[in-house]
Amino acid sequence: MDALVRRSAVRGVTRAPSSKSYTHRAILAAGYADGALVRSPLDSADTRATARAVERYGGAVERLGESGEPDDPEAIDFAETPLDAAPGDLLVSGFGGRPEVPAQVLDCANSGTTMRLTTATGALADGLTVLTGDSSLRSRPQGPLLDALAQLDGRAESTRGNGQAPLVVGGPVAGGEVAIPGDVSSQYVTALLMAGAVTEAGVRVGLTTDLKSAPYVDITLEVLDAFGVEARALDGSGAPLDGAADGTAALAVGGGQSYDPTDGAYRVPGDFSSMSYLLAAGALAADPDGALVVEGAKPSAQGDAAIVDVLDRMGADIEWDRGDGRLTVRRSSLSGVEVGVADTPDLLPTIAALGAAADGTTRITDCEHVRYKETDRVSAMAEALGRMGTVVEEETAELVVHGGETDLTGATVDGRADHRIVMSLAVAGLVADGETRVRGAEHVDVSFPGFFDALDDLGADVGREE
């Protein structure tokens, strides 16, 4: 499907979807538990992949219907539905820390988070699990995680011997110490911590390089704590840190723990990665006589809340009522800035789009790891914005966008089957002359299924064409 975006203004109140990162972790944590209610989860292609994985390992996941009851009550082993459960909540019957060997191949579709987190789950089972995904996922690096599981005496192999899926993993591992690089994917750390809590000895993850995307590990620690699991970040001397973002040399989780959230439930917060596109749309294209308000912006461990600071530094008129969780943004004259995305890789496409419409130069640094997402997002944004008339320089770990030399013009651009590329280019299209056609618009289903509906409701001139 193509999205057709034309220059237009937006105004009104909208709400970003729930966090994909938190939803993945909450569904899997509920799977490691005997069971739990996951409130306000994101329903997307990626999170459904994690729910399927929990079921393959012996759990059951049911979405509550309009009545507030499971559509198929007999499909789930759960004492009773909590009285305050709402339609769309997920009722999870877990495998209690003892995953079964799946009866069939575990297909993770396009979800790298699902593959990495549940590969470690497979190493707990007394047998072999085969994990695969679509062509994009089968090209993404998994080698450091496989090596870590092998250090725990598990079986962990790439069928093609290249560190990429399909993967074969098995155990059961009992825990221990591993050493892995921290600058490829923080998801390796998350996978080991979540699985390590139910091993006999626990797991200590030593980092051989600086930890990139550290706020995502903070999210993991926050979710583990909510499910009653104690894990901690350590400095170089082995002393505990308050979080994982600064000075982390290792992370550790004790063994023999049980996942058990307070009152049997966990609520997923709003997603700042998804909010970034709405906030960018407001800063670039809000009606001059109005504003765009985004609800659901409660503070959390999400590193992508940094988009608020980035917009402020660029000169945006933006206000955040943290108590009410409301962000208000008005059309603003933006100026280029330098932004490092070592800890916030998912913001690169949004910042690049903002930079193309800003005065001056926007320099995005520390972004080599952003090349290993659903697509090479550095190259994808450089190519697409170039087609729209932007002067862009691409280096291995930098993307430089010369907004001051740019008159954005509508063009046909490739979303690269990547939800974040699609949404960022659609935002750029709101302020480009003429019509912007974004190929592969259906891929927003990965994290923000209602994205184009939200833009339409806010007054954007957006169409879709099969």
Automatic annotation (TrEMBL):
Q: Which residues bind phosphoenolpyruvate?
A: 20, 112, 140, 187, 377, 420
Q: Which GO terms describe its cellular component?
A: cytoplasm
Primary residence: cytoplasm
Which example biological process does GO assign this protein?
Answer: aromatic amino acid family biosynthetic process
Q: Where does 3-phosphoshikimate bind?
A: 20-21, 25, 185-187, 213, 346, 373
Compartments reported by the entry: Cytoplasm
Q: Which CDD domains match?
A: EPSP_synthase
* Function in brief: Catalyzes the transfer of the enolpyruvyl moiety of phosphoenolpyruvate (PEP) to the 5-hydroxyl of shikimate-3-phosphate (S3P) to produce enolpyruvyl shikimate-3-phosphate and inorganic phosphate.
**What is the protein name stated in its UniProt record?**
3-phosphoshikimate 1-carboxyvinyltransferase
Source gene?
A: aroA
